[in-house]
Design goal:
Elements lengths: L1 E6 L14 E5 L4 E4 L6 H10 L8 E3 L5 H4 L2 H4 L7 E4 L6 E4 L11 H6 L3 E4 L4 E4 L2 E3 L16 E5 L2 E4 L8 E5 L2 E6 L6 H12 L3 E7 L7 H13 L4 E5 L4 H11 L11 E3 L1
Parallel strand pairs: 3-4, 4-5, 5-7, 13-14, 14-15
Antiparallel strand pairs: 1-2, 1-16, 2-3, 6-10, 8-9, 9-12, 10-11, 12-13
């Protein structure tokens, strides 16, 4: 199994970066794209440099409805005709920062279907391909992971705090356990891994993606590190919105089993 980091905040030499995330996953059973980054331009440029094709995918998984994870859909539309798009039904609700800045999807469900994309909107786990599924809604079970703050969702003209009910993760079957790919981790890293373990009925071995700990205090970061140890997660690849302080805490705890990602990197499982 190979995970190619197509979009990330940081980039390897010779590759481009942007605020966002997109990961291309392939093995001998499937080829899927997890999120599409901010622009689509960086995704396509880096995919070409890595020699991967976004044509004929088994599916595209959208982690949640923020622009830095879905913005590339407009640019990729002609490449995704006939492709299954796996997402939560509330991903298309209007999403904003608390100051009113719009941070949601830049393409509608109707526009996606007009372009030939085939929407698979579900709240429950969905199978994408053999040994490959999405979690659906993530249950909040971890006491130290609070609901997200600073985000709003607008529905039927009414605005309320956005707890990211639309967020989901990708779960893959690896040689030593489950490989979990996260977008931002707004629902909490541990909540997400517990949901993945429950959906796929197995232990988590590897986690890749954004952990959204950049504004977390020391106590929450320390509890997250301890919980990852308790779950016996073997390898950790923090990306995107994890935050420097959290990355350093993870590297201190897991040593060479924690490797921060960057666009242009390929992870082999």
């Amino acid at each position: 199994m190979k995970l190619h980091i197509l979009v990330d905040n940081q980039a390897m030499p010779g590759f481009s970066g942007e605020h966002g995330l997109s990961i291309y996953i392939e093995d001998d059973r499937y080829r899927v794209l997890f999120d599409t980054g901010r622009s689509g331009t960086v995704l396509k440029e880096n995919a070409a440099r890595l020699g991967v094709s976004i044509l004929g995918l088994d599916g595209v998984i959208l982690s949640h409805g923020h622009y830095d994870h879905t913005g590339g859909l407009n640019s990729l539309a002609r490449h995704l005709r006939g492709t299954q798009i796996y997402c939560h039904p509330e991903i298309f609700d209007r999403k904003l920062y608390r100051d009113g800045t719009d941070i949601g999807m830049e393409i509608t469900a109707g526009e996606m279907e007009y372009c030939g994309m085939r929407l698979r909107t579900e709240r429950a786990p969905q199978k994408v391909a053999p040994y490959c599924l999405v979690t659906g809604e993530i249950e909040r079970t971890s006491a130290h992971e609070p609901e997200p703050e600073g985000f709003l969702v607008e529905k039927n003209g009414e605005r309320r705090n956005d707890i990211m009910i639309d967020e989901q993760a990708l779960v893959l079957s690896g040689p030593d356990g489950l490989v979990v790919v996260m977008g931002c981790g707004h629902c909490g890293v541990i909540n997400t891994l517990q949901a993945a373990s429950k959906a796929a009925d197995g232990p988590v071995s590897v986690v890749v993606g954004g952990f959204h700990l950049r504004d977390a205090d020391d106590a929450r970061i320390a509890r997250t590190v301890e919980a990852l140890k308790e779950m016996r997660v073997n390898r950790i690849y923090p990306a995107h919105c994890t935050g420097e302080k959290a990355v350093e805490a993870l590297r201190s705890a897991f040593k060479n089993r924690c490797i921060p990602t960057a666009a242009g990197m390929t992870i082999e499982i």
